[in-house]
Design a protein that fits this description.
The complex is a heterodimer of chains A (143) and B (173). With 143 residues, chain A is mostly helical. Chain A is 53% helix and 9% strand. Chain B is an alpha+beta fold.
Chain lengths: 143, 173
């Protein structure tokens, strides 16, 4: 399936793309557009203004996708807190790692194109997922 | 090649005209919750208020996105909102807006400095706790500080001193 999002990806879009590929559509391909009008007819748009899979009711797009596709994996919801804070920084959650995640992704978007940002950030989200999976099993921060 | 265009915020300092992102919005008077929510978010972003329902920020990848999502939120609350990219009509105008934003941040930094100074005589635990809280506050202010005033360094120094220096009472014989 084709998915479309705004060019110049940052944390929310990179995390959504990872979520889509790992949990919704292993064969996902991504298109980056500058304007919502450029979204191809056969593509599902995410993290853009005016689309279903965007920010809604104070949620970032990552949280919206979890809700719309009824993904209730607690590890993904833990990651959602990080993504939410890195993206919105509204202190809804206590996620001190979010600041660094924001900086890492900002840096990547300065040196890499969008497709590469998704490639490079994918393993980062895999690692975060595994870290919090172990963390939730142990009930404390894993090492 | 990087795709996101990151425009230098604060070009008002150098004299050349910068690019700004503007949000023009209207919200119904009732219910008041969305109005208050939007107002708080705008305060947090440190916007320049250009008029009734018109706010501005120096344009960069982050500010553009923040105002875009805020516009979306206003539409969801049955309001009206449009986002614009603009250049001020004159350098003097831009300097005046930047000066007002700088003054607003300066007041926030001074409040932090005052709190740090008034905690300087407290016990070590209390000083560390206050330093931690004020560092969080400094981070929040810095994120909306597009034209850093000299008060920023003073505030940082006051908070750092709180974190490292032993209290006078404990340093005694």
């Amino acid at each position: 399936m084709r998915w479309a999002t705004r060019a110049g990806v940052h944390i929310d879009r990179a995390a959504c793309a990872w979520l889509i590929r790992r949990h919704l559509d292993p064969d996902a391909s991504f298109v980056f557009v500058d304007d919502p009008a450029e979204v191809p007819a056969d593509a599902t748009a995410f993290d853009m203004r005016g689309v279903e899979l965007g920010h809604h009711g104070g949620d970032c797009s990552f949280e919206t996708i979890l809700r719309r596709y009824q993904l209730d994996d607690p590890v993904l919801w833990k990651l959602a807190e990080l993504v939410h804070e890195a993206d919105l920084d509204d202190e809804r959650f206590d996620a001190p790692e979010a600041r660094s995640l924001d900086v890492l992704l900002r840096g990547m978007s300065m040196t890499l194109d969008d497709a590469r940002v998704l490639e490079v950030s994918g393993p980062l989200f895999d690692g975060l997922y595994e870290y919090w999976r172990r963390g939730l099993l142990l009930g404390r921060e894993p090492a | 090649m990087p795709q996101s265009t990151v425009l230098p915020a604060g070009s008002a300092r150098s004299g050349s005209l910068g690019r700004w992102v503007l949000l023009a919005y209207r919200l119904p008077r009732e219910p008041s919750n969305p109005r208050v929510g939007v107002w708080r978010k705008l305060e947090r972003l440190g916007v320049a208020r250009l008029g009734d329902g018109l706010v501005a920020l120096p344009a960069d990848a982050r500010t553009r996105e923040q105002l875009d999502w805020l516009a979306e939120e206003i539409l969801e609350a049955s309001g009206a909102a449009t986002v614009w990219l603009a250049t001020p009509g004159s350098a003097a105008q831009e300097r005046a807006i930047a000066a007002a934003m700088r003054a607003a941040r300066a007041a926030e930094y001074r409040a932090v400095t005052d709190q740090a100074l008034s905690a300087a005589g407290a016990g070590a635990m209390e000083r560390r706790r206050t330093a931690r809280r004020l560092r969080g506050e400094l981070r929040r202010i810095a994120r909306r500080d597009f034209f850093p005033p000299p008060e920023r360094e003073a505030a940082r120094a006051a908070v750092d001193a709180l974190a490292v220096k032993p209290a006078v009472a404990e340093a005694g014989p």
